[in-house]
Automatic annotation (TrEMBL), chain A:
Descriptive protein name: Quinol oxidase subunit 1
Transmembrane parts of this sequence: 14-37, 58-78, 98-125, 137-158, 185-205, 226-249, 269-294, 306-330, 342-364, 376-399, 419-436, 448-469, 489-514, 583-601, 607-624
Annotated Gene Ontology cellular component terms: plasma membrane; respiratory chain complex
CDD domains to which the protein is assigned, alphabetical: Ubiquinol_Oxidase_I
EC number(s) reported in the record: 1.10.3.-
Coiled-coil regions listed in the entry: none
UniProtKB/TrEMBL annotation, chain B:
Protein name: Quinol oxidase subunit 3
Family from the record: Belongs to the cytochrome c oxidase subunit 3 family.
Function: Catalyzes quinol oxidation with the concomitant reduction of oxygen to water.
InterPro entries per the UniProt record, alphabetical: Cyt_c/ubiquinol_Oxase_su3, Cyt_c_oxidase-like_su3, Cyt_c_oxidase_su3-like_sf, Cyt_c_oxidase_su3_a-hlx, QoxC, Ubiquinol_oxase_su3_dom
Main localization of the protein described in the UniProt heading: membrane
Catalytic activity: 2 a quinol + O2 = 2 a quinone + 2 H2O
Amino acid sequence: MDFFKQFAVPHPSFLIYASMVGIGLTMLAIVVGITYFKKWGYLWKEWLTTVDHKRIGIMYLLSALLMLFRGGVDAIMMRAQLALPDNTLLDSEHYNEVFTTHGVVMILFMAMPFIMFFFNFLVPLQIGARDVAFPRLNAISFWLFFMGMGLFNLSFIIGGSPDAGWTSYFPLAGNEFSTSVGTNYYMIAIQIAGLGTLMTGINFMTTILKMRAPGMSLMKMPMFTWSAFIANVIIVFAFPVLTVALAMGTMDRLFGTNFFTTANGGMDMMWANLFWVWGHPEVYILILPAFGLYSEIISTFARRNLYGYKSMVASMVLISLLSFFVWAHHFFTMGQGPVSNSIFSITTMAIAVPTGVKMFNWLFTLWKGKIVFTTPMLYSVLFIPLFTLGGVTGVMLAMSAADYQYHNTMFLVAHFHNVIIPGVVYAMLAGLTYYWPKMFGFMLNEKIGKWTVWLLSIGFVLAFIPMYITGLDGQARRMYTYSESTGFGPLNMVAFFGAGLMAVGFVLLVYNIYYSTRYASRDISNDPWDARSLEWATHTPVPEYNFAITPKVNSTQAFWDSKKNGHELFPGKLEKIHMPNNSGLPFIMGCAFFGFGFAMVFSMWPIAIISLIGLLACLAYRSFEKDHGRYISVEEIEETEAKLRGAKK
Amino acid sequence: MKVDNSLPLEYSTEENSLKILGFWIFLGAEIMLFATLFATYFTMVHRTGSGPTGAEIFEIAPVLMETILLLTSSFTIGLGIHAMRIGNKKATMVFFLITLLLGAGFLSFEVSEFIHYVHVGATLQTSGFTAILLTTLGTHGLHVTFGFFWGLFILLQIKKRGLTPETANKSFIFSLYWHFLDVVWIFIFSFIYLKGMM
Ligand code: HEM
Ligand SMILES: [Cu+2]
């Protein structure tokens, strides 16, 4: 019996039991459904073993949307708890777990896979490549991410969720104060997903450096590809730091080492430093691809070339460098000297300069453009003022002396949601709407789409602007309740209402997907938005080999040139195409990692060792395996092409 | 697969040159990993709590042996790659084998060094300093262990399949990895051991 006790949730409540039942039933429904429709074979052959970057991208997308809802439910729970003074909907322990999982899920298991989706789906198409440099590694990356995500979510129903915040500061995250296995989950699940991300970084850097279509010099790459490239460089340099920090944190918790304790030479600030040396660049890993997407969308719908291409690139390079030199702004108030505070204050503010350059470039692109207000454009246009507000409050936070006032208050929470929601989430939703036809061959409904944008935006303003005010008045972050006399009540009620509107917005998004799947016209061209870059030059939906003939590029918008100035995009004739074979190995390795991680969380060493051996066996097998892929013959290509052309009249 | 014979075997296909570039980037990530460990080491080196300091537990003789073994193995893997370039399968295999044996020698010294640390009361749990010391050394040691098996598998493949673009590519990448571990060791030797003993 003792063995099973460790799997029990430490502070069960009705809400947790209800969700457990919900999750259980959903899982059951999925398994029964797949069996009933006899889809296991299809699932295995077409998805679980796939190495096609487009499908891997779509799997990232599904994970991201799923996690958006999981994190969103957490958000609503928090706002509901804070809506009234002295509320008792959640108790303090449950509240701790909710804000922790909300933060981790949103950043690492929602926003990250969302950008991974864009990397995977778009980058090869934008550079005119057949696939990424290492297709199989790409599948491994996905499965590691997926298993990390699964493991993290499991914490909710087995053993207890982490409760030390998404920053997991020690000694709070040490065994002494975080007594459940929750923080073990945190350390290990993020470690697994993080390894996958690191491999993605290596893969996409190589892809972009080596696999561009003929004629596409670096300075002719589409802006999204540039942003993806820089984000991946940041990944390669930042993620190893996280790997080390998490490994040390794991050892402190499982093996009783003294890295981050406050006794025996341990150093709790070491964690804070390592965490933010990774954590700050991490937010730029998220925001730069979002900037890339906005650049694509704004230039498409302003019907103009992007203004200031070179300065766009230069500013991203500068941001990526600076992002590594600002981390200590996260602990201005934790006892470092005034010199250090001033330096980090200045480097932080310096980031506003290249960001401002980008803002002006977008504005100048719009300036003389003939703007078409589609849904993606609406997101992009609203992004500009909203994000600017977040940027301004960021500069306020960067003033180290003033930070003593706002530190760890709702002001900070308002600030980072103010940059991350209009900055990242809007970009993802805009990009999703924009690229939806390329993925699935039909458009999302514009009218519902615009309703979604407005609901989200009004909800956003109502949910987060009040937090600036209560934050300045002293409402602390991560505080599960407050008394009536503070006067925070009414504004928090407004925020709750705003969060509710946002929730309606997200539900509307789902409804839109459902509605458009059923009713939208399938008779759309390959280029429904009249866009400018290469991904729109191939068929919709994209055939597995992407381009029948490798495109030849002459400018930053070769496709536009081919439409307007008669540039020949596909010179040459068909040749057989080399493609990689599917493989079950990445998925199996993912499962082994999952087993290993789960066993580690509960210190079940024999199982951990067995999983580890399984994992190494997979690597050994891979080393000996001979797999040279296969060829698609010219006849097959012609057939596919004819069929795809036929579909569009 | 197109083989371009004007290039060395390990670069001769497009896939091969992709892999080599990818591996260089991976080494960039590895540099960050070890840099983080070193940075942590330097900040925690004097945080010995109630445990011993470096000067009290380091012993020069085994460390020198480890250094000699690993440096020599870096040299022999270089010879192995040279032999591979001139197409001498047998010599390639012999140098690979010597490299792996030297690596194994390094590991056996390192294991006994670790046993010694535990013996004198410097375990992972003793203090912040011992934790980061053993973690840094251990990470490097695990890399060498992993490399040992990896190299062994490549050796077996060369034996079975000969020097093909594929095996040559793997061997070359492996040699990069092995040299890299050597460079890391030089840092460990100078900044952890020598500095610690002074
Ligand atoms: C969609 C509407 C959202 C609402 C209503 C919301 C609400 C909240 C609230 C109330 C908190 C603070 C709780 C506290 O400190 O007591 C919080 C924390 C946080 N949120 Fe959100 N959030 C939303 C979306 C997002 C998104 C999209 C992201 C990231 C991509 C995100 C990332 C975070 C992080 C990192 C924290 C800090 C967690 C911690 O303190 O450890 N949130 N959110
Ligand atoms: Cu920061």
